Amino acid sequence: MLTQTPRSLERDGLVTRTVTPTVTVTVTVTVTVTYELTGLGLSLHHVMRDIKVWAEVHMDEVLANREDYDTRIA
What we know:
Blueprint: H1 4-11, E1 15-23, E2 29-37, H2 39-73
Antiparallel strand pairs: 1-2
C-alpha cells in the first residue's frame, strides 16, 4: 500500500524511480530507492505551487464562507 502512490506517479510519467543496491562489508545487500520529478512532474509542481499560494491567500475567506453556510443550514 505504501508504494501505491509513488508507483502511480511513476506510471503517469511524473517521477522516475531509481533503485541502487549497496553491498556492505558484512555482505548485506541494502537497497536505496530514490524518486525524481520528470519534466512533466515539474510542470505539475509549478501548477500545484500556484494553487497552494492561492489557498493561502484566500483561506480566511473560504473559512468565513464555510461558517456562514453552516450557520444558514443549521
